[in-house]
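Table S2 (text version). Query chain:
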Amino acid sequence: MSVKTIAVVLLSVQEAEWLAPAACELARVHEAHLIGLHAAEPIQLYASMGMEGAVLPELTRMQIETAEQIAEIFNRAAKLSGVANEFRQQDSGFYGAEEFALSSVRSADLVVTGTADPAHNAASVERLRDELVRRSGRPVLVMPKDAPLAVRPDRLLVGWSDTREAARAAHDALTLAAAGAVIDILSVHRSVGPMDAAASSREDMAAALDRLGYRATVLDRDAAAGAAGEALLAAALERDAQLLVTGAFGHSRLYDFVIGAVTTYLMQNATLPVLLAK
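Corresponding structure-token output:
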């Protein structure tokens, strides 16, 4: 399967200025149709805000202006790249940005978003990014500002566990990878022990990739509890990977809160493109 429809979620003007051109270049490489999408944060109503006066109209005007600026940036980037494209803008109002975004991306082969930007990302923006990964049903490519994915990667690092999420991520990555790419399959352990189900399934995955013409290797790393994200990024840097691939949110929300979510860490700290699948 190839990537022929890409949806890029643009959450702020500052993000759109670099993410829209990056997504256009990715669409050009894959000869894909690109959907630009802006979901507005819902306007919160509080009795003390005097919404019956000038506050609500002013907030609505600001939302509209932001959406128009993002659309202009996207359309300019798409015109320069020459990719087939469309832009979808949420109507200003009170229904959820999350549902609008999720509905708009489910037909895409790939969803693109940026890494977290502490200067511009409110809690609602971070929640929307999480929901794209958790509920869209599509692979999500998280791109950092300084390291967008503009080629078919020929070196990939796959974070492996014996889970549905990891298996799906590894297979989804093949739609992006260059023919004959080197694919490292990494298991992160608290301590390296005897072969278990995860190690066995990892060997099976490596063999399957070899049959498809890729060059697969298996790796192991130790990491303390809650530090798997750091271990993945360090290994990706060590192996000169162009794309990090991993399953997303494989534990309960309570586990993620207590121990720490690898997915959240990667979305906030990635220094290379990360492909996430749930």
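Notes on Table S2: The beta strands are 5-9, 33-38, 85-89, 110-114, 140-143, 155-159, 182-189, 215-222, 243-247, 274-277. The first strand starts at residue 5 and ends at 9.
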